[in-house]
Design a protein that fits this description.
Blueprint lengths: L2 H10 L4 E3 H9 L4 H10 L1 E9 L2 E9 L5 E9 L2 E3 L3 E4 L13 E12 L2 E13 L5 E4 H12 L21
Bound molecules: zinc ion.
Length: 171
């Protein structure tokens, strides 16, 4: 199996992590997980970026669902797979993609986009970097949050969120 096939298999098996940093970039570009996964499943490895003990980083170029071409950074090694769009690892201790710190399992409050709506979901399991605080969410956890939101669910509170374009206000 080629490396690309192995990375794709992790997506199919729902065995990867997505970093919160990646999610912010995805939000900037109006992308969701389906777009990133589509790019991995239909794209190709454009470049090998770095190779170190944490695994090799690859840049995958592929189409998102509306046909735009995007780049996805993945870190992959046989037992682990990570990156700044996608991070995947199995095993208890993960190393942070950004600072190399160890991550610890914690339940966090998460801003979760689903079907173009923003939810704040409490008590979501994440791997959190002890050094820099970067959060990594496993695909099965994110799938489970989606599934919960799709069903009839209890709502603790409703917030109204303004979307505003930032401009400097004259003094
Ligand atoms: Zn870190």
């Amino acid at each position: 199996m080629s490396t690309l096939q192995k990375i794709r298999q992790r997506v199919i098996d729902r065995d990867y992590f997505l970093s919160s940093h990646a999610e912010e970039e995805m939000l900037d570009d109006d992308l969701d997980r389906n777009d990133v996964e589509n790019a991995i499943l239909k794209g190709r490895i454009e470049k090998q970026l770095t190779h170190d003990a944490r695994g090799t980083r690859y840049r995958i170029k592929g189409p998102c669902l509306d046909g735009r071409i995007i780049h996805v950074i993945c870190r992959f090694r046989e037992d682990k797979y990570s990156g700044h769009y996608c991070v995947c690892a199995t095993g208890a201790v993960m190393q942070c993609e950004f600072c190399g710190g160890e991550t610890k399992k914690r339940n966090v409050k998460r801003q979760h986009w689903f079907q173009r709506q923003l939810y704040i979901v409490e008590n979501v399991e994440a791997e959190v970097c002890a050094e820099c605080g970067e959060r990594y969410f496993h695909a099965t956890t994110l799938d489970a949050v989606d599934a919960l939101l799709l069903k009839k669910h209890a709502v603790k509170e409703k917030l109204c969120v303004e979307v505003v374009e930032f401009t400097k206000v004259a003094a």
